[in-house]
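Course exercise 7: structure representation. Students receive a sequence record and must write out the corresponding structure in token form. The form below is the worked example handed out in class, using Meiotically up-regulated 14 protein (216 residues). Read each field label carefully; the graders check that inputs and outputs are placed in the correct fields and that the protein name is recorded exactly as given.

STUDENT ID: A-19
EXERCISE PROTEIN: Meiotically up-regulated 14 protein
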Amino acid sequence: MSTTTTITEASFDAQVTVQTGLNYSKRQTEAQSRARIPQFEDKAEERKWQLEQMAAAFRIFAKLGFADGGSGHISVRDPVVTNTFWINPYAVHFGLLKVSDMVHVNEEGVRIGGADLPVNAAGFIIHAAIHKARPDINAACHVHSPYGRAWSNFGQPIDMLNQGSAGASSGLQKTIVGDEEAAYTKTGTGNPEVMYMQFVPEYQMMLKESGGNFLE
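STUDENT ANSWER:
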């Protein structure tokens, strides 16, 4: 036997039904099901929000071990002047970065505002090419995972143990999926809000751990 508990959240004007036991089901309204990327009428406010998310992302990357000396960067398209970008200063540890540390650059990586600090020009050139080719992409990240750095020192190929590693193989025959399967995969992948939904809990935890000092 399983039991059913009904909980009403007045603040969301929604009803959630949870069935416990071997069979588990959960029904939620769209308002409760996931965090959403906020929409702004004021582009200056959107810029402020983006920089806060950007600073938090660096702190989270540092916590995950993705900081590698002066290497690694995130670039974010400016919502006010959309052919300009924000990037982190060079040689500042991810775990120390704040909103006020971010540098505003043009498509050539030349500083036009923000913090008066140097940036990794060579690194930004790669991002600039992505942003120019894909105006729908607002952010690009370049980091080095601890396991990836360690493995690269050996100069050995990656064993084809899963689909992710198989993609890097030069000697493995690859099968091109059909249009129908590709369309289904795109539908299942969702939109940027799916990634944002994963980010929000990390952001909230970073707020608690740091006292929000990255917002300065």
